Structure formats: C-alpha cells, structure tokens
Amino acid sequence: MLKLISFSTIFAAIVSGVLGHGYVQEVTANGAKYTGYLPYTDPYYNPPPQRIIRKVPGNGPVTDLSLIDVQCNGYTDGGVAGSAPAPIYATVAAGSSVALNWTTWPESHMGPMITYMARAPSDITKWSPGTSAVWFKVAQTGKNSAAQWAAPTLLVNANSIYTFTIPPKLKAGQYIIRHEIIALHAAYTYPGAQVYPSCIQVQVTGSGTALPTSFVSFPGAYTASTPGIVYDAYQNTSAYPIPGPALWTGGN
Ligand SMILES: *[C@@H]1O[C@H](CO)[C@@H](O)[C@H](O)[C@H]1NC(C)=O
Ligand SMILES: *[C@@H]1O[C@H](CO)[C@@H](O)[C@H](O)[C@H]1NC(C)=O
Ligand SMILES: [Cu+2]
Predict the structure, then answer these.
(1) Closest ligand 2 atom to the C-alpha of 236?
(2) Does residue 77's CB lie within 6 angstroms of at least one atom of ligand 1?
(3) To the nearest whole number, what is the mean pLDDT of the chain?
(4) Is the per-residue pLDDT at 137 higher than 50?
(5) Atom in ligand 2 nearest the alpha carbon of residue 237
(6) Which residue's alpha carbon is nearest to atom 10 within ligand 2?
(7) For residue 252, with 0-12 CB atoms within 10 Å meaning exposed, 13-18 middle and 19 or more buried, which class applies?
(8) What is the pLDDT of residues 172-228, one digit of tens each?
(9) How far is the CA of 200 from the centre of ligand 2 (A)?
(10) CATH architecture under which domain 50-247 falls
(11) What are the residue boundaries of the structural domains of the chain, listed by start?
C-alpha cells in the first residue's frame, strides 16, 4: 500500500515535470557527467543521491525578485534559506567549457540565458551566500539580430545543451555557478519575468590569479526597474538589454 502511494506520487510528479517548464538535468565538466538535482525523483530516495546542483523545489520559476529564492531557486531547507549547499562538487579547469543539459524547454518561454559565478570563502558544501554581493557575470546570451532568443531557439538548436567557458585566468578555488533562463513571455509588466536559476558547485583548477572587483547580490541584482526585466517580447523589436552587470572575462 505504502509503495503504491509513493509510486503514484512519483508518477504524478513525473507527469507534471514533463508538462512544466524546466531545470538543468545534467552537467558535463572536464569530460565527466554529473546528473543534476532531479526534483521529481531525488526526494523519494533514502539516502538521497549526491548531487553537485543545489536543490530546487521543482521546474517552476521565481517571479518575486526580492526573494532569496531568486538565488538558486532554493527554498528554506535545514534552516538555510535560498541556497542550501549540495554535498559534492565537480572539478573543472579554468578556460574549459561546461555543458548544461536542460530539460525540454517550452517553445513559448522566450528569453536570455545568463551565467554568474561566486567564489566560496570556505568549503562550498557548507557555504550559502545569503544576500551578500558575491556574484559576477561570466556569460550571457539574449536576442540576436535575427530576433532569435537564447531560449528556446538557440538552446533547442543545440540539443538542449547550453555551453559556457570558465574565465581562463580565474583564480583556482571553489565556486558556485549560478545559471539561469529568464522567460519573458509575461514580462510586459512586473512581476512577470520568470527566473529559472540553478546553482552548480565546482572546484576550478589552474594557475590563473584573476578575480573580479565588483559584485552583485541575489536578491538585489534584479528589480522591476532593471533593464530587461520588464520587456514586451511580442511587440518590442528593438535590441534586448540583458539584465545584470557587465560581463567579467578576467582580462581576456
Ligand atoms: C541530456 O540529459 C538527458 C537525461 O540524462 C539525456 O537523456 C540526454 O541524452 C542528454 N542530452 C544530451 C545531448 O546529451
Ligand atoms: C523596447 O525595449 C527597450 C529596452 O528595454 C525599451 O527601452 C523601449 O522603450 C522598448 N520599446 C517599446 C516600444 O516599448
Ligand atoms: Cu512556464
């Protein structure tokens, strides 16, 4: 009986997952593949599978950009709000590319894909940034001159794989990669933009010494008046201003 109940719960969850929006389901770094945090199955295992991605409650978005949830799509877990650490991390060389495999992204959810990093001051499996300004932007794709959005068009064309490069001169150490799609189908007003963030824990290796000098916080980086948060994606044919700070490329 118990088994049956939990099976149907998982089944219902899987069905809603298929019909919903999305999250990063797999990470490839330094040639190794890591399964992402799977919100519709991982919670039903005891012990839970060990992941490099911080827990997300499901495939849904964050729309209230003042909430800590906008950091990692996290929620209060074990007393840690917003981005409860995951137990393990991936290792990746500075200058190498990281591939993030998204679940099937809905055709209707157009918007940019943006990637930030934050350097952990200590053990990343114990660190939550809270509202501190620690994040710097390392990659961004918005709308190109052919009016194609990062998501869904470019993402679908790439087989649902988004790729970015760890800044080549970035100082070795532990970092959170905060990656997101911002869906703009309802962003003609605020709240409306839907943020789908994912936080991936990595150990960066290499001999670089570069670190950025300016940082943003999540929540904080995005508000109703940040360019690109309110945008009429159906009517507005002008260039799209990608939200957040300038890119940091580490002197490259
Ligand atoms: C993305 O991950 C899914 C689930 O693990 C897998 O079935 C699919 O083949 C992956 N896509 C690519 C292009 O590797
Ligand atoms: C189109 O978007 C840009 C950038 O957000 C904005 O400055 C401009 O006012 C918008 N145009 C219209 C007609 O809404
Ligand atoms: Cu949606």
Answers:
(1) 1
(2) no
(3) 91
(4) yes
(5) 1
(6) 236
(7) exposed
(8) 999 999 999 999 999 999 999 999 999 999 999 999 999 999 999 999 999 999 999
(9) 33
(10) Distorted Sandwich (2.70)
(11) 50-247
Ligand 1 contact, 140 CB (< 6 A)? no
For ligand 1, the distance from its centroid to the CA atom of residue 251, given in whole angstroms, is: 34
Quote the pLDDT of residue 74: 80
Write out the two tokens for 154.
Answer: 């470019």
Cis peptide before 191 (omega within 30 of 0): yes
